């Protein structure tokens, strides 16, 4: 027998179906013919912009180059900004390694910016907290003011594009959820029971268990 698990509420969701000969073929034929992929592709096209891929690509390239330079020449930035060299350059090289690894993440995210929004989110948070840490260090007198140029190129110039990508990903997520709810309701409306009632009607009457 078909086994359905329903969650009663605003609508009845199908959680599991197990049967070879389905007693409600209308439901399964509708699901197979449902244009879900087309709907999601259309939503993605509405929110995706070509500049997103380019922005993440350039962010990846910048991070990889900057990280490699810091690892290979840890004292270069300090000499350029006329700041005393650190006592432990290995820590600065470690920062360069982390920045370079971020670059690999951005390169991966550039292939599908809205799908890989968690990578963008991690990078965005780093670019928010980086300037905050810089200001705190300057306020305490433990961090040279000259390093503000690094905050500009490492963090600040990327805040707007990263934020816009995250906002687009969030809006896409909301719209896709709305489409999925509508598709489930439409599928239930097309599925008829032996009594002639649709599963959607039964769910509204709280007659499905």
Word description of this protein:
This protein has 209 residues and is an all-alpha fold. The chain has eight helices and two strands, in the order ββαααααααα. Strands 1-2 form a two-stranded antiparallel sheet. Strand 1 (6-7) and strand 2 form a beta hairpin.
Report the span from N to C terminus: 14 Å
Q: In order across it, which strands form the biggest sheet?
A: 1-2
| Biggest sheet statistics | 2 strands, antiparallel
Shape: elongated
Approximate helicity band: 55-70%
Low-confidence segments, given as residue ranges, are 1-34
Nearest-integer average pLDDT: 76
Order of helices and strands: EEHHHHHHHH
Strand fraction: under 5%
Rg is: 26 Å
Report the structural category: mainly alpha
Secondary structure tally: strands = 2
Helix tally?
Answer: 8
Could you give a short description of this structure?
With 209 residues, this protein is an all-alpha fold.
């Amino acid at each position: 027998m078909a086994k359905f698990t329903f969650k009663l509420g605003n609508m009845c969701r199908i959680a599991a179906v197990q049967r070879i000969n389905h007693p409600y073929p209308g439901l399964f034929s509708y699901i197979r013919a449902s244009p879900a992929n087309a709907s999601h592709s259309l939503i993605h096209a509405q929110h995706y912009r070509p500049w997103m891929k380019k922005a993440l690509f350039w962010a990846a390239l910048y991070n990889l180059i900057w990280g490699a330079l810091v690892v290979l020449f840890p004292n270069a930035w300090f000499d350029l900004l006329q700041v005393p060299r650190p006592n432990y350059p290995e820590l600065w090289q470690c920062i360069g390694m982390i920045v370079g690894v971020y670059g690999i993440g951005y390169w991966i995210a550039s292939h599908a910016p809205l799908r890989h929004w968690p990578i963008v989110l991690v990078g965005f948070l780093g670019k928010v907290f980086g300037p905050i840490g810089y200001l705190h260090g300057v306020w305490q007198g433990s961090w040279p003011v000259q390093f503000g140029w690094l905050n500009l190129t490492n963090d600040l110039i990327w805040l707007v594009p990263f934020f816009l990508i995250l906002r687009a990903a969030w809006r896409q997520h909301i719209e896709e959820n709305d489409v999925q709810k509508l598709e489930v309701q439409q599928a239930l409306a097309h599925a008829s029971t032996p009594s002639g009632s649709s599963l959607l009607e039964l769910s509204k009457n709280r007659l499905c268990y």
